[in-house]
Specification:
The complex is a heterodimer of chains A (103) and B (789).
Chain A: H1 5-25, H2 29-54, H3 60-90
Chain B: H1 5-31, H2 35-64, H3 68-73, E1 77-83, E2 86-91, H4 96-121, E3 126-127, E4 130-131, H5 133-152, H6 156-174, H7 181-212, H8 217-230, E5 240-241, E6 244-245, H9 246-261, H10 270-273, H11 279-288, H12 293-300, H13 307-330, H14 334-355, H15 358-385, H16 403-417, E7 420-421, E8 426-427, H17 430-456, H18 481-487, E9 492-494, H19 511-520, H20 526-551, H21 558-563, H22 568-586, H23 589-600, E10 608-610, H24 623-630, H25 632-644, H26 649-657, H27 659-666, H28 671-744, H29 751-772, H30 775-785
Antiparallel strand pairs in B: 1-2, 3-4, 5-6, 7-8, 9-10
Helix pairs in contact in B: 1-2, 1-5, 2-4, 2-5, 4-5, 4-11, 4-15, 4-22, 4-23, 5-6, 6-7, 7-9, 9-12, 9-13, 11-15, 12-14, 13-14, 13-20, 14-15, 14-17, 14-20, 15-16, 15-17, 15-22, 15-23, 16-20, 16-22, 17-20, 20-25
The chains are: A mainly alpha (103), B mainly alpha (789).
Chain lengths: 103, 789
């Protein structure tokens, strides 16, 4: 059995679903962050796979994936910073308790 | 001599009292008594007097060297402002009249200031434990500034400004004892009465401004002459009021100001009440200078007068001089008696102006200023010496206690009565000036028609142009034969045919137009002359009565007589002014005025008449007039002495015999009562009527309108506003709120929910694409289905 595009897409879909599910179920901010990373990386897998199978010889997909990785790193740094501050203020990283700014 | 040194000196002389005023206002209370008084004497009037002397000498030199006219023409003028395109200039008027008046005012004022120091020394002047002493001298200084400013103003506007300022000073000084009700009432009365006159003055001023397009005195006169010659401007108007042309209204309007300030009938009522002020004030302001400002004004605007306007002036003056002289007879208050005599003499001056006796009227102004100031100061000495007793019936026999006052007062009485030896030139004050006015009046009343007939078919060479041919320093009769015959005893006519050469007037119709003007001037009604003549007999009577009751006979009140005394500080000015009376009768002033008359009366429409009643060249036809006028004082004196020498009982008997007349005179012809009835009560009645109209018409309509508005407002507020407008607004708000409640539901603030919504929505979108998918999604599906490609 040769590994084709469909397999990659399947792996990516599983990753995406796992990330989405993590985001929906976790109350811990770090957990949600992990979910987000999973979703982003599923997108990366998709991008590389499409690049490999649909546009061979072109690097559009790979470059976009690199952008996504950089973006994810920046986002993670920001999000972890927020988490630390939330923890400092509330002594917890439970997102349900961070309701102070709610109208 | 510097080019403008005289004008600058005059300006400095005007400003000096202002500085004195300023000093006294700020540091007066600190200076205290008597330093504040001496400040006013030195700075307020001493400096101006020195300057006036300097200017007088410089001016006499200028006349001698023939530069006077040039100096007058080149006098300083600065452009001050533009009023609707008409330039307003500020400048100094420099001519013989200004110089003479300036010297006269500063001289008299200086001695009155001097007198005031003595007069106020013994006065209790405290109000609320604070002395008013310095305030008195501050006001006097302010008056000095205003009066001198009035004299040197070359523009009618500035003349008017200073005119109002002297009025203000008069008000302040009459009301000096403002803690006494009568004084403050008198001050208000003076002020309001003057406003009436000033209203007329303003009308005249406006007419000058609009019709002549200038407010400068000389320019106005020149324009007036031009417009008359060309028949344009004010002479083009066909507007008439009471049969007066616009030009006449202008003259009468300007004269109204003089009526107020010079207290002419029917605005005379304020002057007797003004005696509520301190006596030096009465002497300075209400006898010698300010009240004469009216005459000065008429003299200044003489060139803007028409024959009709001058006739009006003459009538007013004539009524004043006669009516006021009669009141003076029955006065028992020494100051009131002098006040009425002032009114009567002012009437003479105004009457003289009306007759065209420009020189005589101003001459009378100056001689009168000297002796009336002296008389008032004498009365001030008497009042002060007798502990503020003003009733002459309680005096008598004061000659031993106050010899200097007594005899200087007597000189004043002689001067005002016109005492002198008829047919010669020995006399005092009124002997020259008043009789000159009468001479002119006689000429205008009796000889005028004859003269006109003569003149109609003869050349105008006989009409004397005064001074020009004589030279300013010769007050001799004119040598022209025709004039001499016409002069008779009474002087010659001098129709000033052409204005001064500086603004020579083109005469369009040649000599005939001049003749027609000349013929257009009516003779004076004869009754006016008779009234004036009769008054010349009344004047010595009441003056002698006043003097006799005060100083002669036996003391009628031991208490008053016992305390009477006089002080040197006060009688020195009396002696000086007595000398001034002599000097002013003979030297200097008449010549200066004659000199000024050339230009000042050079009007196209006006007839200036000159008269010498006592010149030796007496024509046989009018002998009786010379002796009739010149001897009047003897008759008056004899009657007065005959009545009052035995005591008061003769007068009492006469009073009972003619009680209706006496009552009329004591009540001053009921003028105050009539004015009270017409103006004061009239005002109140008018106010009541207004209130009635207000209550029953205006207020009623207003209230109906208000209640209607109220009803309507209630309707619109409750129904339309609450249910209509508010309903719409609230409805919108409520709807928004309901809607937002619905929308707010899903916004839980929980990330999980948002992610769920987002994922769900994405899933729905994908499902929808798959179900209703277009070609593109189908192709994607196809690509996905073929991994190898």
């Amino acid at each position: 059995m040769t590994i084709g595009l469909t397999h990659y897409l399947f792996v990516a879909a599983v990753l995406f679903a796992t990330g989405l599910f993590t985001m929906m179920t976790k109350r811990n901010a770090i957990g949600i962050l992990i979910g987000v990373e999973l979703v982003l990386n599923s997108a990366n897998v998709n991008l590389i796979a499409f690049d490999r199978y649909l546009g061979p010889g072109r690097l559009d997909g790979q470059i976009t994936a690199l952008f996504v990785i950089v973006l994810a790193a920046a986002e993670a740094a920001l999000a972890v910073g927020i988490c630390i501050n939330v923890y400092k203020n509330l002594s917890t990283v439970d997102v349900d308790t961070a309701t102070r700014l709610q109208g | 001599m510097m080019e403008h040194s005289l004008e600058l000196a005059l300006a400095l002389g005007v400003l000096s009292p202002l500085i004195s005023f300023w000093v006294l206002v700020f540091w007066g209370p600190k200076l205290g008594k008597p330093a504040a008084g001496w400040t006013a004497v030195v700075l307020g009037m001493g400096v101006p007097l020195v300057i006036a002397t300097y200017v007088l000498i410089g001016w006499l030199n200028a006349i001698k060297t023939g530069k006077a006219l040039e100096l007058t023409a080149n006098a300083l003028r600065y452009h001050w402002a533009d009023l609707g395109g008409v330039p307003i200039t500020i400048g100094v008027k420099l001519d013989s009249l200004t110089v003479a008046m300036f010297f006269m005012v500063t001289f008299i004022a200086f001695w009155i200031f001097f007198f005031s120091v003595g007069y106020m020394a013994g006065h209790s002047d405290e109000v609320d434990h604070r002395s008013k002493y310095s305030r008195f001298f501050a006001y006097l200084s302010l008056f000095g500034f205003s009066m001198l400013g009035l004299l040197v103003s070359s523009s009618l506007l500035f003349l008017f400004i200073f005119w109002e300022l002297v009025g203000l000073c008069s008000y302040l000084l009459i009301g000096y004892y403002f803690d006494k009700a009568y004084a403050s009432r008198a001050a208000i009365k003076a002020f309001i009465t003057n406003r009436v006159g000033d209203f007329g003055f303003l009308i005249g001023l406006m007419l000058v401004y609009f019709q002549l397009q200038t407010l400068d005195l000389d320019q106005a006169a020149a324009r007036f002459a031009e417009q008359y010659a060309a028949g344009t401007g004010i002479f083009a108007s066909t507007y008439t009021l009471f049969g007066w042309s616009l030009a006449t209204i202008m003259g009468v309007g300007l004269f109204c100001g003089a009526m107020g300030k010079s207290a002419q009938f029917p605005l005379h009522v304020w002057l007797p009440d003004a005696m509520a002020g301190p006596t030096p004030v009465s002497a300075l302001i209400h006898a010698a200078t300010m009240v004469a400002a009216g005459v000065y004004l008429v003299a200044r605007v003489f060139r803007l007068m028409t024959p009709d306007a001058l006739m009006f002036v003459a009538i007013i003056g004539c009524l004043t001089l006669f009516l006021m002289a009669l009141i003076a007879i029955v006065q028992t208050d020494i100051k009131k008696c002098l006040a009425y005599s002032t009114l009567s003499q002012l009437g003479y001056m105004i009457f003289g102006m009306g007759c065209g006796a420009w020189i005589a009227a101003l001459f009378h102004l100056i001689t009168h200023a000297f002796f009336k100031a002296m008389l008032f100061l004498g009365s001030g000495q008497v009042i002060e010496g007798c502990h503020h007793e003003q009733d002459m019936r309680r005096m008598g026999g004061l000659r031993r206690k106050m010899p200097v006052t007594c005899w200087t007062f007597f000189i004043g009485v002689l001067a005002i009565s016109g005492a002198g030896i008829a047919g010669t030139t020995i006399g005092l004050g009124g002997f020259f000036s008043k009789d000159e006015i009468l001479a002119v009046a006689y000429a205008r009343a009796f000889e005028w028609d004859d003269y006109k007939k003569h003149d109609a078919h003869e050349s105008h060479a006989s009409i004397r142009t005064p001074s020009a041919s004589e030279g300013p320093w010769l007050a001799e009769p004119v040598t022209d034969s025709k004039t001499v015959t016409q002069r008779g005893t009474t002087g010659g006519f001098s129709l000033v045919s052409d204005p001064a050469p500086a603004h020579a007037r083109p005469v369009p119709h040649g000599e005939s137009s001049k003749a027609s003007i000349f013929n257009g001037i009516k003779a004076l009604p004869k009754w006016m002359f008779y009234l004036a003549l009769f008054t010349a007999y009344v004047t010595p009577f009441y003056m002698m009565r006043c003097w006799w009751m005060t100083f002669m006979g036996k003391p009628r009140d031991e208490h008053v007589h016992h305390h009477a005394h006089e002080s040197p500080l006060m009688y020195i000015p009396l002696v000086v002014l007595a000398i001034g009376t002599f000097v002013s009768s003979y030297f200097l002033f008449r010549d200066l005025i004659t000199d000024a008359s050339t230009v000042a009366t050079a009007a196209p429409l006006v007839l200036a008449t000159d008269g010498h009643v006592h010149t030796p060249a007496i024509n046989s036809a009018h002998h009786w007039l010379v002796y009739g006028v010149g001897g009047a004082f003897i008759v008056g004196f004899i009657i007065a002495i005959a009545i009052y020498a035995p005591g008061l009982y003769v007068a009492e008997r006469i009073r009972r015999a003619v009680w209706p007349l006496h009552t009329l005179l004591v009540h001053k012809y009921y003028f105050d009562e009539v004015y009270d009835l017409i103006w004061v009560k009239g005002c109140i009645v008018f106010a009541r009527i207004c209130r009635f109209i207000d209550t029953w018409f205006v207020d009623l309509a207003f209230n109906i309108l208000a209640s209607a508005t109220e009803r309507f407002a209630a309707f619109s507020g409750l129904i339309i506003d609450n249910h209509g407008v508010d309903g719409v607004v609230n409805g919108v708000a409520q709807t928004s709120m309901d809607f937002s409640d619905v929308v707010r539901g899903p916004q839980t603030g929980r990330i999980r929910n948002y992610v769920l919504f987002a994922a769900g929505a994405a899933a729905v979108v994908i499902v929808l694409i798959l179900i209703y998918g277009s070609g593109s999604s189908a192709s994607v599906a196809a690509v996905a289905a073929s991994p190898t490609s």
